[in-house]
């Protein structure tokens, strides 16, 4: 206790023989402790008071640390005899906890102390032991007290924006989940309604079929992004990640800032693109051509057509863009969390990583005294977290793979459009419609700026997977800067990490820095192809 007190300043200790050795006092001591260290010596199990303290530790779900004496002069026990003598209800303590040997030699004692410190506040998860986060990450918390730990990591703007856009976060209530289902239904319903516009060419709302097809196909794509995101959030992988595998307070604070900035940008884009789209569509749907169709002896269905599409567009546009940006923002957060789990694995190497974080530890430029057992524990933890990292990457890849498949397919039309040049085409029927209705010109500018296939929407979605390359680069740079007192350990450490690819590689989509120019060229061709078509029309107008 004296050694741990010196090693952990500010941490309080309770020792029964020095404070209150009564049964009531011992129960109170165990109940109010965070960790219970049981020092294994001969005769331990024969003590009814030690048995009571062990049972209280189990009753109050305390973290148990087992330390065994190794000197026969001081009561070195036989673990087999201890387990044999142990009551049946206590035997699993030995099976579920690693036993740390205690050496009195000062050269080895430092290692024992570090292992005890590292075993503090651990949470058992199946056969593995994973450090419990001092900043347990939660998206949302619903408690009677109103206390929300999720706000410590995820900014409230992020939570409210994602919920409003139909992303039901873990911990969401029944109403939020129902709204999430409703948003997906609305997206598919509106996609079907937009398809009906292909066959309704009468009236000022119709401009051309190609833009309608863009909108129709965009609806299931956004639905797919939203559905995949919600499926991932409900998976046991996320629960395991948040509860057991992340202990990176420095990164958690940074993530809170990133989510706030990302949410503000997503909200700004959603609002601005929605108003822009409303200006291009609502005047058309609420045009007198439709509203006065009955008095002008036109089909009564035109009135229903205009009102239904007009009110639907008022509702759908914020959901259309909001759901897309909320899904992309959530995928960014999931990528950050899986990377934080990888960084948490470094805590197995040295307590310095736990206390200061990898960035601060690397900045000290001091060598770390790491042995083979520490490296082994790091390798086991890193391998498990890397598997989660890649599993989440594969699950999130489905909408991106579908999107890029369609982008490849659009290249043939874009190349044809570019081959037509930029000269005016007065004979194009769209020219006359643009001359007659100002809102159609606004609509064309809206497609140029926001189209999910040729505008800003395409670039945002297409380049999102390439952001993963940042994590691969950062991990490689920081790993190379870690100094070891034993050069052989550094070589083994770097050789181990070199075998893990963090880049986004799924099927034909290899989002790496080396291939980025190729994908950018595809986006440029598609964007210029649509722009060339618009320029030909504008010049004719």
TrEMBL record:
Keyword Transcription appears in the UniProt entry: no
Keyword Signal: no
Cross-referenced InterPro entries: Toll_tir_struct_dom_sf
Membrane-spanning residues: 153-169, 181-200, 212-233, 265-291, 311-334, 396-416, 452-473, 517-538
Keywords: Membrane, Transmembrane, Transmembrane helix
Name listed for the protein in its UniProt record: TIR domain-containing protein
Annotated source species: Polarella glacialis
Record lineage: Eukaryota, Sar, Alveolata, Dinophyceae, Suessiales
